[in-house]
Amino acid sequence: MQSRLIRSKEVQAITGLPKSSLHNMARAGSFPAPLKLGARAVAWRESDVDEWLAGLQQKETR
Length: 62
What we know:
The chain is α+β, with helices and mostly antiparallel strands. The protein has a single domain, classed as Recoverin, domain 1, CATH 1.10.238. The protein has three helices and three strands. It has helices at residues 8-15, 19-28, 46-61; strands spanning 5-6, 35-36, 42-45. The chain has a three-stranded antiparallel β-sheet. A hairpin with a 5-residue loop joins strand 2 (35-36) and strand 3 (42-45). It starts with a strand and ends with a helix. The mean pLDDT is 93.
């Protein structure tokens, strides 16, 4: 099944993180990297964001 692409505003709503944090964390390797859609447009795979969130929840339950 193909994952849906979601833009920054939706990723921000899902994670509660501001856009600058998303990009800084992606550069640092602690958040999924966005896909470049154009010169000034990026999106994330929804499945990648969901996996990242699931990993956070697993850390909390340990």
